[in-house]
Design goal:
Radius of gyration: 31 Å
Helix content: 10-25%
CATH topology of the largest domain: Neuraminidase
Number of strands: 50
Structural class: alpha+beta
Distance between the termini: 77 Å
Number of domains: 4
Strand content: 25-35%
Largest sheet: 9 strands, antiparallel
Number of helices: 15
CATH superfamily of the largest domain: Kelch-type beta propeller
CATH class of the largest domain: Mainly Beta
Length: about 850
């Protein structure tokens, strides 16, 4: 059967956002979302997975379709081995199906609208060749009772159709489980901005397919749910690291990023590997002559002004080994393995003179803060003098603020640079002018997130006023990497993004760095662990800008389409709130406090943190740098001379010490040999388990001898630790909890002797083992119970600052604790700070919904007027 087809360029076609009655709120929301440059859409798993794992998107809006309808969306096709499938199936009254079928391969391209056995509208190959892979194209399909219309960007096809009575319509993208129109052929595509309008072009529903629930997504107008199976949400690429490659290369492989070429280079003695961040491919460039320096530390950098790779060594009278991409040669052929003189240093190419500069590092038991310079054909390193010297350090991050300024963030070392004097972690930011070589300290923040150091590169976003850094604990071997941002001007508003990445930290044998690729707007992490004569390398990607995982979740709050005036009122209110928020956070920045994710929302009031109020309660100090074993907010051990000996504890020794202390506190006897074996050596035979226990007990005794008053003792078959002078924060807070349980009265005379500032500390947050979970849970419950009891004491009830401190401490252990919410909001409201109480309530409701997937049932009025 032949059908008349009309084809013309789109001129007066209704565009994606041009439907009548388009709500003002939706326009405002779109502007806000697009300003963030966030990815959106649903990625469809296709023929590369089994049928049960392919993606479907099902839409079933209820509307009057008797005069026809239009479905409008963006689609992006990717190239895979099998590209055939149903873009959508539109099922009318469960009897008729209109199918948009794509078959876009390198050899043949077709996109056809089919009903039954008839092809009604078809784009030819010449038209489709105008569109590239992985590029968004706009499709609009209109089905009327007597005609069909299909739009692909500017190309429009129209056809007459037999008369159709339309009552019920369902839309299936990708996999379809409809009983009559089942299909499992899914094209490799992504879909976004799905809109449905009725025959009068009134917008019925709009699914941006951005924020979402795990298996559904509500439309932006009437909260109509779209159901999804096997989803991969594009926005999640901003909140979850994707492991792109795992490489096992020769030991001490060097690597660097060439952002202008969208390549990450890996090099060793025989070849250069070029990983393309655009195509996710790995190409090999065989070196014709020479090799890079074989360094234990990573000492490779891309020189953009010459388009070369520079491998460098710190020996005197040693030139750079330069890789020339034109003839694939290295300029040097020194094959000896070098020991790092400046391990975990920072390096950059100066735009001023195109020279290589290095800062800091560690070697020969010293932390460094010198700046060295080397030109392209220079033999010796030249030390550069600079004013306002940065304290010696390594494991810091370096980034470019602009062409004239380099930023150095964090690290660890000490002011004297001598390892024997101990090590401290720095949480400061320095700016270095590369023209005048003058350093300036911009800020330093107090750390309330546990010890961490920084990957070698940081990413600076001046427009967003943020620096992004890879932070990882340096007090454990089985560590993890977490992406954090800090305000450039103050260090405030510390925010954790995305998920964590496992990272084995073995000092000079481990390396991690952060790259930003501006071509594809992606962040990349490269980790390397030199072990067993191999460089074990992983590459991870994250779309920019990064998000917290909860930012990708759609709030499940139903609402109807607002009137225009209500929308305008909403917009005005939003602007006012933004102004108030700016003033508040500007003032917060000036205080130099790093705020955790949740406390940004819940500590807005925080009169307790005001300097004038802090003078009222000078709580018992918990900063112990001598003879101390710390469990709260991170495992750390200090010897009697003030040396941090945490790294001396292997993973098994750390677990052994933790077990003995936890059991000693909880049952007053300690831990038996039998229990130790069941937990630590369950996989070994009796004799082997006993030998392991003896060896590690002996090692633990030797380490504890470095502390004053911490003795490992054995009574019968139970091991415990006797403390006389050594401090343990976990033991102190447990004693405090016991005092609260025993109804010890808090008064003005003893308040400053109580360790109330320890209440918010979490128990060993970076130690992840199954056996520890119950201890953590019991500890959190004990703290919450003690906090409730404490808040009911007469002296405490009269002090609003103490009540807010107690509520914040409870939130640190349970973000959805209702008593903490009532306590804080009630206190703020009573103190005349109702707007801040409302902000706390709103933040709590969002957290409650995100964590428990259900709405909080109480209203704000019920909370502030509730009984404690």
């Amino acid at each position: 059967m032949n059908h008349p087809v009309v084809m013309f360029k789109k001129s007066a076609v209704v565009a994606a956002g041009g439907y009548q009655h388009f709500p003002f709120l939706l326009i405002l929301n779109s502007i806000l979302l697009e300003s963030q440059n966030l990815s959106s859409g649903l990625y469809f798993s296709a023929h590369n997975v089994i049928k049960e794992e392919r993606t479907s998107l099902t839409l079933s809006p209820e509307f009057d379709a008797s005069k026809g309808f239009t479905i409008d969306f963006d689609v992006k096709f990717r190239y895979e081995k099998h590209n055939y499938g149903y873009v959508f199936r539109i099922v009318i009254d469960d009897e008729t199906s209109f199918d948009l079928i794509a078959n876009i391969t390198s050899g043949r391209k077709s996109l056809n609208l089919i009903e039954g056995d008839n092809v009604y509208l078809a784009f030819d190959e010449e038209q489709l060749n105008q569109h590239a892979w992985n590029k968004w194209v706009h499709i609009q399909c209109s089905i009327y009772p007597d005609s069909l219309r299909l739009v692909l960007d500017d190309e429009v096809l129209q056809s007459l159709y037999k008369h159709l009575n339309i009552k019920d319509v369902k839309f299936y993208f990708g996999y379809s489980n409809h009983s009559k129109f089942h299909s499992s052929d899914v094209p490799p595509m992504s879909v976004r901005n799905v809109k449905i309008a009725d025959g009068k072009q009134k917008l019925i529903a709009y699914w941006p397919l951005k924020e979402h629930q795990p298996y559904s997504c509500a439309d932006s107008l009437h909260h109509i749910s779209a159901m999804v199976t096997n989803p991969t949400w594009e926005i999640n690429k901003h909140a979850k690291w994707v492991k792109e490659k795992t490489l096992e290369l020769p030991i001490y492989t060097q690597f660097c990023h060439a952002p202008s070429k969208s390549n990450i280079y890996f090099t060793n003695g025989s070849s250069v590997l070029a990983y393309s961040t655009i195509n996710n491919t790995l190409d090999t460039i065989n070196a014709v002559r020479g090799i890079p320096y074989i360094e234990i530390n990573n000492q490779l950098i891309y020189q953009p002004y010459y388009d070369e790779l520079w491998s460098y060594d710190f020996d005197t009278a040693t030139r750079l080994s330069i890789f020339n991409f034109k003839d694939n040669t290295w300029s040097n052929d020194d094959r000896t393995i070098k020991n790092p003189e400046y391990s975990q240093h920072n390096a950059f190419i100066s735009p001023k003179d195109s020279c290589l500069y290095v800062f800091g590092g560690y070697g020969n038991y010293q932390y460094k803060n010198q700046i060295f310079k080397k030109a392209r054909m220079q033999d010796d390193w030249e030390q550069v003098s600079y004013s306002e010297e940065i304290p010696p350090r390594y494991l810091s991050g370096l980034g470019h603020k602009n062409g004239d300024t380099i930023l150095v963030f964090g690290g660890c070392g000490n002011p004297q640079g001598k390892q024997e004097l101990g090590i401290v972690n720095y949480y400061d930011l320095y700016a270095l002018d590369v023209n005048a070589f003058k350093a300036k300290k911009l800020w330093s923040i107090s750390n309330n997130m546990g010890n961490f150091v920084v990957g070698s590169n940081i990413v600076v976003d001046e427009k967003a006023n943020k620096l992004y850094a890879l932070c990882f604990p340096n007090d454990c071997s089985n560590s993890y990497i977490l992406l954090r941002s800090f305000d450039l001007d103050s260090g405030n508003n510390c925010t954790n993004y995305a998920d964590t990445i496992p990272f084995i930290f073995d000092d000079v044998n481990s390396f991690c760095t952060l790259y930003y690729d501006y071509v594809d707007s992606q962040l990349y992490i490269v980790t390397n662990y030199n072990h067993n004569k191999k460089s074990n390398i992983s590459i991870y990607s994250l779309s920019y800008p990064p998000l917290k995982i909860e930012d990708t979740l759609q709030r499940d709050t139903a609402y109807t389409t607002p009137s225009l005036w209500m929308s305008i009122l909403f917009g005005i209110t939003l602007c006012i709130l933004a102004g108030v928020g700016y003033i508040y956070f500007y003032n917060r920045r000036k205080k130099g406090t790093c705020i955790s994710d949740y406390s940004v929302a819940t500590d807005i009031d925080s009169s307790y943190e005001e300097p004038a109020e802090e003078e009222k309660y000078k709580f018992k100090s918990t900063i112990h740098r001598k003879s101390a074993i710390l469990f709260l907010d991170g495992f750390q051990v200090w010897d009697k001379d003030g040396m941090d000996i945490t790294k001396s504890f292997t993973p098994i020794l750390k677990q052994l010490l933790i077990l003995i202390i936890l059991y000693s506190v909880n049952n007053k006897k300690g831990i038996s040999n039998v229990t130790l074996r069941e937990i630590l050596w369950f996989d070994k035979m009796d004799e082997s388990a006993q030998n392991n226990r003896r060896v590690n007990i002996r090692k633990l005794k030797l380490l504890l001898e470095k502390l004053d008053g911490a003795e490992l003792v054995k009574e019968s078959t139970y091991w415990s630790i006797k403390f006389t002078q050594t401090y343990c924060d976990y033991i102190e807070i447990c004693h405090f909890i016991d005092r609260v349980k025993n109804n010890e009265i808090v008064t003005a005379e003893n308040i400053n002797e109580l360790p109330l500032n320890l209440l918010s500390g979490q128990l060993l947050p970076y130690v992840q083992t199954d056996w520890l979970d119950s201890f953590k849970s019991n500890y959190a419950n004990a703290v919450l119970d003690a906090a409730i009891s404490l808040s009911k004491q007469e002296y405490v009830k009269r002090n609003h600052e103490l009540l807010i401190l107690i509520a914040n401490s409870m939130f640190a252990h349970d973000k959805t604790d209702e008593y903490a919410l009532t306590l804080k909001c009630h206190t703020l409201h009573k103190n005349g700070r109702t707007s801040l109480a409302k902000a706390t309530f709103d933040a709590f409701c969002n957290e409650y919904k995100a964590m428990l997937n259900t709405d909080y049932v109480k209203t704000f009025d019920e909370v502030i007027n509730g009984r404690l």
